[in-house]
What does this fold into?
Amino acid sequence: MQHETRISADYNPATSVLRERVILVTGATGGIGSVVCRQLAASGASVVLLDKELKALEHLYDKIVEDGSPEPAIYPMNLEGATFDHFPEVAQRIQEGMGRLDGLLHAAATLGKPAPLELYDMESWYRTLQINLNAPFMLSRACIPLLRQSDQASVLFTSDHSGRNGAPYGGAYAVSNAGIEGLMRVLAAEMADTTNVCVNSIDPGVVATSLRAQAYPFENPFELTRPEQVAGAFVRLMGPDGRDFHGQSLTVEPCETATS
It folds into this structure.
């Protein structure tokens, strides 16, 4: 088991702390991703919303605009079917349309099919690793040149205790999260002395999301931590107040109360 550092989600940033910053978020319409995107935008960031369903992206776009936050950008993309040719185009379009990139949050994930490894479905294995590990690597690789140009950039990988602890029957989901931890450490080491890019991973804990419901269908979601109770830690790490963290496997300490 690798060492983990606790980070509090009790964070109330100034409304302009991320002003003129551009942050790309994958899995933007997910349970945690959508809340984080709204809070990033409320803190002044121009958020690039990347996810596979256009209708859900448009709904999140409308919510952010209704909040009175900076207008976000929409980037529909299915990470499962994306190849290495697609990711440089993401970075190119951000550079052409936004002029910069100051943060990259990997929040997209799929559960796969939990099962013993000796019985694991091969198609599910490849699909899960593509979304959870290959895509974050390829997108990070494509975006590094832009991130290097920022005076304060952040890359944040969403992780899970199964990848840090080797949970049995976690299958490709647990293995991909273990890979994310390795990817984070290697990238953090490479960015440490030559860039202004902070790189970390974050485990939000047990949160009421659709992914959690898929894994534990008989669990009562109202007894779990809400996405709003962990979002503050993500927002902190994407801005100047998270600069003290680099190369760390972080675990969220949720807020007592959820704020929208």
